[in-house]
Amino acid sequence: MKKIFINKEQLETRVAMVENDILTEYEVERYDQERLVGSIFKGRIKNLENSLQAAFVDIGFQKNAFLHYWDMIPAAHNEGLFDQNTITGDTVAAMDANIGDSFGSTIKKSMKAKDSDEQERMRQEIERIPELYPVGSEVIVQVTKGPIGTKGPRVTTNLSIPGRFLVLLPHTSHIGVSKRIQNHKERDRLRNILRKMSLPEKMGCICRTLGDGKPEEYFHNDIEMLLDIWDTMERNRQTQRAPYCLYREPDLLTRSTRYFLTDSVDEVWIDKEDAFSKIRKTIAKISDINLGKLKHHTQHRPLFQHFGIAKQIDSIFERQVSLPSGGYICIDETEALIAIDINSGKARQGKDHPETILMTNLEAAEAIARQLRLRDIGGLVVIDFIDMRSKKDQMQVYRALKKAVQADKAKTKISPISQLGLLEMTRQREHQSLKDSLYIPCPNCDGKGVVKSMVSVSVEIQRKLQALLKRSKDKIEVRVICHPDILHRLRDEDARILRNMEKSLGGNLSFRADDSLHVEEFKVVNPKTMKEYR
User: Fold this and answer.
1) Residues 4, 269 contacting (CB under 8 angstroms)
2) Bridge-partner residues for 29, per DSSP?
3) For 158, which DSSP code?
4) Which of 60, 110, 275, 422 could link 8 by a cystine bridge, Cβ 3.0 to 4.6 Å?
5) Do 18 and 26 contact (CB within 8 A), yes or no?
6) What is the pTM of this model?
């Protein structure tokens, strides 16, 4: 059973997909967080960095967008600035297997071709980019990666506008079919339908996975909608000044209709009346899905709690995830990579039992693929599976992980387990993770996840007092103001040390608590003037 649950509230919308009572997809959209990925802007080039071979484009946000010279070539070709023949057949074919990738990434692949003349032409085109797009010039770009941390968004001039069954490609005449549709007869049928469509010159389209088995009229309706969107964009491009948003990705409620409502979905539960009516009207227009699958949740108990999803959602943000056999995985997000460790825990049936290790690792592979989707984390992922001596077992775990990530919409690349027992993989990262979008760094530890122990803070206070008393020629009065827990430590365990310090170095020490101070903070002041000693 596959079910979708949509919870719409004043400040956020949440969508969860559950398969056989297990949470497999989860997405949150808050109304104060703008989703940039997929949106198209008329921007203005603010800076060119030849050393990086990149332009920085003002699209109307605090940080300028990063546009690599490779990703500017499609626009140059579309405007007739370069010879169309330099776009090779290999490059176009690569697009069929890389829907959503920037055109620049496919051009990079063509550079590996043996034809040195072609490589030289491509290099010359890159060198001409600064002349063709000087600072201040306007360019139409699409966001491929949202701002993450201190980095601004990444953009490309290779535009693609997704519909329900098709993706419109305004800058290339390529006709393609999603690689996930594997039946050769169906692929041929879909290609013939797409070739018969009356598309403008130099425009193409790709059939999405949802188009598998759909009748021809569905595609004609879809392409009409997409061309209307493009016409509106063109009118705004000619009349509006940069920076200006020409096309914005729809909200989560609309995207859920586009991506999730397929024939494989058994039920769709929605808790708000207005959202229920909106989705019902949308589906009636664009889909043959049985409207009886739509259910309106009217119980007083919240939707996610009523169906037992709330606890599974809470576990998304936990570091440790339990496995059915008693083992567990630990997931740590760092700036450079995602580190995942597998532990056998209670799953041991004797020391290093090969069958137990294999079973735990296979469970971990499935759990890892699901957790990466749920947490929406990506980039470089390093997995430390429990050591397996058998190469056969290692390959079995590797294949299990490859199979488990096939359901992931984000692109992944997986390498076999190395000699060090580590598996490396990458997952497409379009925007910040779910955790980063919902949480802020802890104000007490600044995101470190740890604070100094009371002993450590006491040592620092003693060190500060010793330095102050030693440099003072006269006997002085000193007051230490600190957190109540630290004061308790100073008055009990460390009282003898402080009394000895007074006798040996001179001085009059006093201590006060201030619960407004952080546990690591303290002040050493003159009790009369309350000025802090430096």
Assistant:
1) yes
2) 13
3) -
4) 275
5) no
6) 0.75
SS3 182: coil
Q: How do beta strands 2-8 and 267-270 pair?
A: parallel
| Residues whose CB is less than 8 angstroms from the CB of residue 520 and which lie 6 or more positions away in sequence, other chains included | 451, 452, 457
Nearest residue to 34 (alpha-carbon basis) of 471, 432, 486, 505 = 432
- The band of 93, judged by pLDDT with boundaries at 50, 70 and 90, is very low
For position 385, what pLDDT does the model report? 94
Supply the DSSP string of 29-48, one letter for each residue: EETTS---TT-EEEEEEEEE
* Contacts (Cβ under 8 Å, ≥6 apart) of 251: 13, 29
Instruction: Give φ, ψ of 478 to 5 degrees.
Output: -130, 135
Instruction: Please report, in angstroms and rounded to a whole number, the separation of the first and last CA atoms in the chain.
Output: 68
pLDDT of residue 104 exceeding 70? no
Q: Is the peptide bond before 243 cis (omega within 30 degrees of 0)?
A: yes
245, containing H or E segment: strand 244-247
The residue whose two tokens read 């039920």 is 267
Q: Would you state the pLDDT for residue 95?
A: 35
Q: What burial class does residue 217 get, using C-beta atoms within 10 Å of its C-beta: 0-12 exposed, 13-18 middle, 19+ buried?
A: exposed
pLDDT of residue 346: 67
Q: How far apart are CA 323 and CA 469, in angstroms?
A: 57
Cα→Cα distances 395→229, 338, 354, 355, 380, Å: 47, 22, 14, 14, 20
Of 219, 161, 162, 160, nearest to 189 (Cα)?
219
C-alpha triplet 494, 498, 502: angle, nearest 5°: 170
What DSSP letter does each residue of 476-531 carry, written as one string?
A: -EEEEEE-HHHHHHHHTTTHHHHHHHHHHH--EEEEEE-TTS-TT-EEEE-TTT-P
| DSSP string of 408-464, one letter each residue | -SS-EEEPPP-TTSEEEEEE---S--HHHHH----TTTTTSS----HHHHHHHHHHH
Residue 260 has pLDDT above 70, yes or no: no
In a 10 Å sphere around its CB, with 0-12 CB exposed, 13-18 middle and 19+ buried, how is residue 515 labelled?
A: exposed
- Beta bridge partner(s), residue 57: 45, 65
CA dist., res. 155 & res. 152, Å (int)? 10
Strands in 522-525's sheet, in edge-to-edge order, are 508-513, 477-482, 522-525
Q: Cα Rg for the chain, rounded, in angstroms?
A: 30
Half-sphere exposure of 376 (CA within 13 A, CB side): 16
What residues are paired with 22 via a beta bridge?
Answer: 19
Vertex 43, ends 228 and 27: CA angle to 5°?
Answer: 65
* Residue 508, CA distances (Å) to 18, 337, 467, 497, 527 in order: 67, 52, 14, 14, 10
Report which of 363, 415, 369, 405 is spatially closest to residue 386, judged by C-alpha positions: 363
Q: What's the pLDDT at 128?
A: 80
pLDDT over threshold 60, residue 388 = yes
Burial class of 11 by CB neighbour count within 10 A (0 to 12, 13 to 18, 19+): exposed
List the beta strands (DSSP E) in 163-238: 166-169, 175-177, 204-207
